[in-house]
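Annotated sample (chain length 68).
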Amino acid sequence: NEPRKAVTFGDGEPLPEDIVHDCLRILEEECVAVPWQRGDVLLIDNWAVLHSRRPFVPPRRVLASLCK
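Output written by the structure step:
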């Protein structure tokens, strides 16, 4: 993603690039890696936390469902 285009204020105005990089640094510092094992299930509340994914070695199968 191009930081200047990917992260904006609610009105569409871009955040200053240095602020975006500060946020990325903080996110990296606060990151928690989940030690996955076969058969594990993880539920994430998208309203409470940010989530992402790290690079992985295939094969990998992810089943996802979104609900309200």
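Annotation: Residues 18 and 24 are 10 Å apart (CA to CA).
Annotation: The longest helix spans residues 17-30.
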